[in-house]
Design goal:
LRAT domain-containing protein, single chain, five-stranded antiparallel β-sheet, endopeptidase fold (from Nostoc punctiforme)
């Protein structure tokens, strides 16, 4: 859960670290850590935003990253959606199977709240086969209410 102060701090940090001329800008990024894959949104060739557990801007150099082969929205749109998603989902609890870093990052980058890790887990049948059932509609309603219909697209 994020406070208003945390949202403002993260928005400012995202804007300060974002570089639209970098190859990682607005990309859906992935890395392996112990038993799970983790997901983030690239801000520049140096930094990424990680929604895993604790929302934070972290250095890319500390991870063995790969850009996912997923078709994403245009990079500028992804970064704008990332900034607004902070407020929209500020009260949502992180959960490995229900609402995780992959759901969040894929929603921001592709407009699809989906986790392949959940889909291929033995408990997928308890968790909508990897899809979050409400996140896309909630985010789209939030963006419409804010007058940001241009941020609602599919890749």
């Amino acid at each position: 859960m994020l406070s208003e102060n945390e949202i403002v701090r993260l928005r400012n940090e995202i804007k300060a670290k974002a570089n639209s001329n970098s190859k990682m800008y607005g990309k859906l990024l992935e890395w392996q850590e112990s038993f799970a894959n983790h997901y983030a949104i690239g801000l520049s060739d140096e930094y990424m935003f990680s929604p895993g557990g604790v929302f934070s801007v972290i250095k890319i150099s500390e991870y063995n990253l790969k850009s996912t082969p997923t078709k994403t929205l245009p990079s500028n749109l992804v970064i704008q959606r990332l900034i607004y998603a902070l407020d929209c989902f500020k009260t949502w609890e992180y959960g490995l199977l229900g609402w995780n870093c992959e759901h969040y990052s894929r929603l921001v980058a592709t407009n699809e709240a989906f986790s392949y890790q959940v889909k291929f887990s033995p408990l997928a049948f308890l968790n909508n086969g990897g899809y979050h059932p409400d996140a896309v509609n909630i985010f789209q309603k939030y963006l419409k209410k804010k007058g940001l219909k241009e941020l609602i697209r599919n890749p």
